[in-house]
């Protein structure tokens, strides 16, 4: 490989310099800026995975033959560089998510304080005015026909803002959804969704009394 070919290779697989620059400034970012950075990192990762897929290679596929020689059917150098960048971007994405969770907690803490203050100013019980969350944290990737989710009007690509008491600041990688669903089996759970830019509310009753698996009959994935 001559110097020009190597230069072209490096240009093809290097991390977008703007991502590196923004990561160095991340501590000063507000939540909307972090969400844009998260999306851009995910897009870069998707591009890298696409390059690996073109060569029929995954992150753990061997790059040497059983005899210990570099494989001739794939670009070993390119793949090695892509894998290195993927691991770096995964770490960056994890840092962004951690920072965004901190900011989300601060955001919702401030909302709670303002809600309690407003309730006190009005002479009302703060429990009478629950916080209305508006930031989605997951999306619906599958809805089984006839399932509790289907009956509740939930659709594919709906973004989940809250389900019961679970929202963006406390879902713990979606683990708390399972807990609240099991706890409320055969009971109506309030669900708040974002669909086509509009916030919708519905009631979902987790149940085993339908012809399918699970209590919800939908697939929920973290944003």
From TrEMBL:
It comes from the Eukaryota. The keyword Lipid metabolism does not apply. Keywords: Chaperone. One of its GO terms (biological process) is proteasome regulatory particle assembly. GO terms for cellular component: cytoplasm; nucleus. Coiled coil: none annotated. Gene3D superfamilies: 2.30.42.10, 6.10.140.1710. InterPro entries: Nas2_N (IPR040815), PDZ (IPR001478), PDZ_sf (IPR036034), PSMD9 (IPR035269). This is Probable 26S proteasome regulatory subunit p27. It comes from Saccharomyces kudriavzevii (strain ATCC MYA-4449 / AS 2.2408 / CBS 8840 / NBRC 1802 / NCYC 2889) (Yeast). The lineage of its organism: Eukaryota, Fungi, Dikarya, Ascomycota, Saccharomycotina.
């Amino acid at each position: 490989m001559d110097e020009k070919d190597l230069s072209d290779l490096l240009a093809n697989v290097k991390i977008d310099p703007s991502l590196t620059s923004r990561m160095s400034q991340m501590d000063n970012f507000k939540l909307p800026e972090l969400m844009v950075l998260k999306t851009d990192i995910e897009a870069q990762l998707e591009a890298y995975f696409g390059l690996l897929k073109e060569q029929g290679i995954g992150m753990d596929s061997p790059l040497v033959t059983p005899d210990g020689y570099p494989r001739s059917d794939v670009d070993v150098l390119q793949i090695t560089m892509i894998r290195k960048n993927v691991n770096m971007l995964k770490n960056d994405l994890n840092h962004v998510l951690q920072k965004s969770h901190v900011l989300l907690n601060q955001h919702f803490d401030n909302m709670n304080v303002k809600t309690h203050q407003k309730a006190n100013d009005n002479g009302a019980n703060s429990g009478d005015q629950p916080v209305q969350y508006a930031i989605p944290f997951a999306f619906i990737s599958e809805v089984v026909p006839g399932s509790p989710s289907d009956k509740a009007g939930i659709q594919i690509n709906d973004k989940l803002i809250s389900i019961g008491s679970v929202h963006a600041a406390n879902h713990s990688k979606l683990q708390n959804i399972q807990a609240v669903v099991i706890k409320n089996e055969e009971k109506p759970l309030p669900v708040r969704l974002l669909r086509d830019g509009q916030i919708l509310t519905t009631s979902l009753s987790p149940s085993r009394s339908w012809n399918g698996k699970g209590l919800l009959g939908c697939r929920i994935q973290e944003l």
